[in-house]
Specification:
414 residues; mainly beta
Length: 414
C-alpha cells in the first residue's frame, strides 16, 4: 500500500467526524462540495501558510442570481466554535460577498455557479484547525449552505500500515491496521486528554474510528495499534455512475429520456454483492468529478454540465429492520429523504430518484437499522480484504487552558 504524507489536507467536516449538521444546504442549492484547488477528488485540507487553496463551490438553481455572502468560523473537530475573536484566527473582513459566479450555458436547467477560493485577498487564515464556512443571503441570517474545511500544521510524524489479517477467520474480509504517531517536541501535558486521533476510510463516517487512545508510549512515539489490534472491514470497490453523455446511450444505461424539462437516466438494475466474489475495479474511493460531453464542446464543466434525474434501482427482498439508502461523497454521506430508497413490491426492487449534475460518481447502498440507527455498509456490498481503500489519519491537539484546537498532523494512505 502506497503511503504519502500531505502537508495540507482538507476534509468536509461531516466526512471525518460524522457531523452531518456541518454539511447543509437548502433545496435550491445543489452540488455543494469542498476540495483542494486543482484536484476536485481530493479530501480538502491545506497547510497553514502554504500556497495551497481550498475551493468551496455550489450551484444555485433557477434563472435568478441571488446576492450571497459568506462567513468563516474557527471550530474544534466537532464543529463547536472556538473561544476566539475573528481577528485571532483570520485577517480580513468577517463577512464577504460572493463575487465569483457564472451563469449556466446551454443547459436545460438554469443555475448560477458560485465559487469561493481560500485564502484570498479578503481572508487570510492564521491558525490550524477546523473552519466552518456559512453562506447566507446578503443582509440576512438566512443560511443557504454550510460546509467545513481544515488547515493543518504538520508538527507530528504519522506511520500507518495496512495489510491482510493473518488470522484465517478475518483474512477474507478485513484490513489489519497498525498506527503510530511521533509527537516530537509538542508541549503536551496530558497525552490522553490533549491529543485526539481520528482514522477515516474512504471519507465515509460510518466506518470511522475516532477518539483513539495510545496503547503504548515509547519516548515521543505513541503506538495506537499494532497488527492484530485494529481490524476494519475492507468493504468493496464502489459502484460507478457515468453521467457524462446524455445524447448517446452508454453501455451502463438502460435508457436516457427527456420529458421536456429534465433528462432522466435509468441505469441497469444493481444486484447485491454481499455473497459474491471480489472483482477488481478502479474507483474513486467514494468521490466524484463534474464532467460533461456538452454540445458546445466547452471545458467549463462547472457551468456547462446539465442537471439530470437519475433513477437507481437495487434488486432485493424488502428489508424489515431498516431503511435502504444510496449514498457517497456526492451527498456528503447524508442519509435523508433525498436518497432514501422506496420498495417496489411489483418489481421486487428498491428505487430512488437523485438530482445530479453531469459527471462520474461513486456510490454504494447502505442500510440503517430502525432500532439502533447503526449503518450497515456490508449488507448489499459485502467486504473483502483485497479492496483498495484510502485511509486518512488526523491528529488534533488542544493544550490545557488553550482557546482552540490545532490540527497538527495529517496522513493519507492509498
Amino acid at each position: 500500500m502506497r503511503v504519502f504524507l500531505i502537508s495540507v489536507l482538507m476534509l468536509t467536516a461531516n466526512l471525518l467526524l460524522g457531523q452531518n449538521e456541518l454539511y447543509y444546504h437548502v433545496p435550491q442549492v445543489q452540488t455543494l462540495r469542498a476540495y483542494v484547488a486543482n484536484d476536485e477528488r481530493s479530501i480538502p485540507i491545506i497547510t497553514l501558510g502554504s500556497e495551497d487553496r481550498v475551493v468551496v463551490e455550489f450551484d444555485y438553481m433557477g434563472a435568478n442570481i441571488p446576492d450571497l455572502e459568506y462567513t468563516i468560523q474557527h471550530c474544534d473537530r466537532n464543529g463547536r466554535p472556538s473561544d476566539l475573536q475573528p481577528s485571532e484566527y483570520m485577517n480580513g473582513f468577517v463577512t464577504n460577498l460572493l463575487t465569483d459566479y457564472s451563469v449556466s450555458v446551454a443547459t436545460t436547467q438554469s443555475y448560477t455557479h458560485f465559487g469561493i477560493c481560500l485564502p484570498n485577498d479578503d481572508v487570510e487564515l492564521l491558525l490550524s484547525g477546523c473552519y466552518v464556512l456559512t453562506v447566507t443571503q446578503a443582509g440576512t441570517n438566512y443560511v443557504i449552505a454550510r460546509t467545513a474545511f481544515f488547515v493543518c500544521e504538520q508538527l507530528t510524524t504519522i506511520e500507518l500500515s495496512v495489510r491482510k489479517p493473518q488470522l484465517t477467520a478475518d483474512s477474507r474480509h478485513m484490513h489489519d491496521v497498525a498506527l503510530s504517531v511521533d509527537i516530537g517536541g509538542l508541549p503536551i501535558g496530558n497525552i490522553f486528554d490533549e491529543l485526539n486521533i481520528g482514522l477515516l476510510q474512504n471519507g465515509c463516517p460510518y466506518s470511522a474510528v475516532i477518539d483513539m487512545k495510545p496503547r503504548q508510549i515509547a519516548g515521543t512515539k505513541l503506538v495506537y495499534s499494532y497488527f492484530g489490534d485494529l481490524l476494519m472491514a475492507g468493504g468493496n470497490e464502489f459502484r460507478r455512475l457515468d453521467l457524462r453523455y446524455l445524447r448517446q446511450t452508454p453501455a451502463n444505461y438502460n435508457r436516457v429520456d427527456f420529458d421536456g424539462s429534465f433528462f432522466h437516466v435509468s441505469p441497469a438494475t444493481d444486484e447485491s454483492r454481499a455473497f459474491k466474489p471480489y472483482f477488481t475495479d478502479e474507483d474513486q474511493n467514494g468521490q466524484f468529478i463534474i464532467y460533461a460531453n456538452s454540445p458546445t464542446r466547452t471545458t467549463d464543466f462547472f457551468r456547462s454540465a446539465d442537471y439530470v434525474y437519475v433513477h437507481p434501482t437495487l434488486a432485493s427482498e424488502p428489508v424489515l429492520d431498516g431503511d435502504v439508502f444510496v449514498c457517497g461523497a456526492f451527498n456528503g454521506w447524508q442519509l435523508d429523504s433525498t436518497n432514501l430508497m422506496r420498495y417496489n413490491f411489483e418489481q421486487q426492487r428498491y428505487e430512488s430518484d437523485l438530482l445530479l449534475k453531469q459527471g462520474v460518481y461513486d456510490y454504494i447502498y447502505v442500510c440503517r437499522n430502525s432500532y439502533t440507527a447503526q449503518v450497515d455498509m456490508e449488507r448489499f456490498e459485502g467486504s473483502h480484504s483485497e479492496t483498495a481503500n484510502s485511509y486518512l489519519v488526523m491528529v488534533f491537539f488542544k493544550p490545557a487552558n488553550a482557546d482552540y484546537e490545532q490540527l497538527v498532523g495529517v496522513l493519507v494512505s492509498e
